[in-house]
Amino acid sequence: MLSPHHLHMMRIAALCTWAVMGVPVVFNALVRHTVSPLGFVIWGASSLVFALAFWSSTREQLKPQPDPARSVTLLWVQSISGVINVWDGLYGFSAFFLVLVAMQLLPTFSLREVQKLLPTLQSGEAAPRIRIRGAVLWMLGQTAAVAFVHGLRHGWLGVAPLVAAYIGFQLYVLFSSHLAASERRSRQVLEQAYAEVRATQGLLLDSSRLSERLSIARELHDVAGHHLTALSLNLEVAVHSEPRRLEYLQKSQVLAKLLLSGVRETVTALRGEATLNVTEALHTLIQNVPGPQIHLDVPQNLLLSDPLRAQILVRCVQEIITNAMRHAEAEHLHIQVVRDAEAVQLTATDDGLGLQEGQKEGNGLRGMRERLAEVAGHLEVHGAPGQGTRIFLTLPLGGNA
């Protein structure tokens, strides 16, 4: 679908076009009196119906959850009123209503290929976001209707050039919209991938620090601790065998014990600080996400010492954001993370399309289950059509997390 900004600009440009197309007809009817009263009434009524339907259709597309049935119905009204407008009006300009309809075809047929009206996909299969086949068929159908009306009213001699001209105009508008939607889609994917890379880099950096600290702790304990212990024992023996050096040896013994105590304290401190800051990784992950709006509730310092569990938690949040953006078409996503002594619990709710009846889990949810299964975790997914999705997961911490 197009962005709200593009849709808003499209509404303004289209309504201006609609108003300009009506000026010659009104002038001919009121000043030159070259338009019959009945023809003027038919033209005016169909133009007004078209404008109201167009305004309602584009307004529907600006909603967080557009109704596919309502959107298609409004397109029908516009196409039919456009064909009627050609019957008695300024014929060359009136057919431009088809172009205005073509501007809306892609956003409408991007609503999961209008899945409520055309349930051709298998249960659980993710429908593509940008489908142009239905839009092209609609465009050809309304052009054929206008050509038929023009042929009845004015003869069939000029139908072919008319059809060629308006198909060209409509294709230009349709593929321009397709290009804009594809570009926006690609930008969303790129921005999300960038956020995921930044979050992963943060985890890798913390994991590297953790490995370095553990390595230093082992070295201090195995090497320095061992030698200082031996020094302390040797000095203690010297105290008993060399009474004349008792004072100096006792001081040396005290210093050696102090050094040994300092090494042990350093080892303890390094091991205690060897944790991964998951809070920072999650905040990095949600930065610059183009949509939906993410509300993150996470402890200020969520620290995990197990790199595997930290990675699983971040990957699950990443997948939740991806599903809300690509499949649920949600406007808001709420993520709450809570930790206790035994586990980390995450609850995520969105206001998207929800789960369709009989829908199977995709690769993303299966991947989340597999990751959590590695650490005896648990995942629950609940949702209903049009009521959003709720995800609850439990990540056990284990003895060293």
UniProtKB/TrEMBL annotation:
Signal peptide: none annotated. It comes from the Bacteria. GO terms for cellular component: membrane. InterPro entries: HATPase_C_sf (IPR036890), HATPase_dom (IPR003594), Sensor_HK_TwoCompSys (IPR050482), Sig_transdc_His_kin_sub3_dim/P (IPR011712). Coiled coil: none annotated. GO terms for molecular function: phosphorelay sensor kinase activity; protein dimerization activity. The chain crosses the membrane at residues 12-31, 37-56, 93-111, 132-150, 156-175. Residues 308-399 form the Histidine kinase/HSP90-like ATPase domain. Keywords: Kinase, Membrane, Transferase, Transmembrane, Transmembrane helix, Two-component regulatory system. It holds the Pfam family HisKA_3. This is Two-component sensor histidine kinase. It comes from Deinococcus cellulosilyticus (strain DSM 18568 / NBRC 106333 / KACC 11606 / 5516J-15). The lineage of its organism: Bacteria, Thermotogati, Deinococcota, Deinococci, Deinococcales.
